[in-house]
Each structure stands twice: as structure tokens, then as C-alpha cells.
Design goal:
Blueprint (H helix, E strand, L loop, with lengths): L1 H26 L5 H19 L9 E6 L10 E7 L5 E8 L21 E5 L4 E2 L7 E3 L5 H5 L8 E3 L8 E2 L2 H16 L5 E6 L5 H6 L6 H17 L4 E5 L2 E5 L3
Parallel strand pairs: 1-9, 7-8
Antiparallel strand pairs: 1-2, 2-3, 4-9, 5-6, 6-7, 10-11
Helix pairs in contact: 2-4
Length: about 250
Amino acid sequence: MRIIRFITFSFALIALTVFIVWSFASARSVDSERSRKAVKYWMPVLQVELARKDLKLGAPIFLRLTKTQSKTDIQGRLEVFVENSSGEFVFFKSWDICAYSGALGPKLRQGDGQSPEGFYFVTPARLNPYSKFHLSFNLGYPNAYDRAHGRTGDFLMVHGDCVSIGCYAMTDVGIEEIYTLVQSALGGGQHFIRVHSFPFPMTDENMQAYKSHKDAAFWQNIKQGWDWFETHRRPPNVKVEERRYVFNTDL
């Protein structure tokens, strides 16, 4: 009889544990009331805008950040490119960056107030519908290159609320649109979304203007990634070899 009670108690304890774990997981699901409301509002709007360019919501996307446009145009920008039926990523839309932290140049250490520059990616696990800054997604800093150079820091985001301490801050309206595109692409089967971050568009004119900057050598390296996309219209695979970024075909 005691054995039966023990077995019954054990099964009950297991069931209770499973229920608690399930409840916690449900409470921290990939959606929140805020994100569901945003996606519900923006999906039909974005579907119409995309259709005008023969693009579809849920197709793979690529994000590109620039902190400034030139020495005389200091407005930061986030661009979204969407894969078309030919397999090319074509420009869809851009949003002004409301705020980023620090000066031009990469993030080096925890607490330096810098927004990162380099090549990052967003997975479903990096979406945060519960963000204190409206909605957000984590860039995954530090990446392999950052770690190879001893760079430190974490939780570097693209988020709303228009304030930044190392992150890229958008308006709440802007992050709602971007979040909807990101969530839809991931939901449509894209395993991760590449996010490339630059100090400015890596044109020859801008490179010449900043040729004496302390980060000029680093920028020459990341320019190769910029040029790859401009040439092939697909974001490259990015690896790190001998503490440098290297780029090859996205198969």
C-alpha cells in the first residue's frame, strides 16, 4: 500500500513539475500582447507595400544599418532588403535610426557606450516581444570576430523607445514595422536574419573622407562585405579567419 502511495505521489509530482515548466514557457512565448497587436496592425499594411514591388511578406530579408550617411549627413538609417522570385535581395524600405550610442567605430568593451559595427544575425530566440523598449531583437554581439579581438559586452539590440546606451534605437512605430518583417521572415522559414552594421555607406568617397581615421583598417575589411552584397545582391556568408572577416557565397 505504501508503495502504491509512493508511486501515485511520484507521478503527481512529475505532473506538477511538467505543468509548472509548461506554464512558464507559455508565459514567455515568442509573442506578447504588444507584439501580437503590432503584427496584426502592420501585416496587411506591409503586404500591400511589398506587393507593389512584387515582394511577399514572409520572404527572406536582410537588414543593413548605417550610423551616418557621410561627413555632412549624420542621419543613421536601417534598410530592409527582401528576396524576390529571382533570388535577389532588393531594397524594400528604410527607417531613420532615432538614436545610437558613441562615435563612429566598433564597440570594444562593456560600458564603452558604443553601438557595434560588423556582421551579426538574428534567430527566433533573439526576438524580445517583452522588451522594456517596446519591441526588440538581439544582434548577437559579440560575434566570432569580436571575441577574437577580446571585445566584451552583451545585449546589444535594435529596439524602440528612441533612447540608446549602446543599441540602435528606432521609433516605436518603426520597430513595430521592422519587428513584423523579422518575425514574418522567421515564421516563413528563414533560419536566421543577417544584420550588417556599418559606420556609413562604404562608398569610395566615404572611405577617402575617413582614410585617416583610427578605424580605417577595420573599415577596409568590412567594406568587402558591403561590396559583396552590392555586387551579388545577396548577403554573403561571413567567417573569421586569422582575426579578419572573410566572405564567400551564400549557398
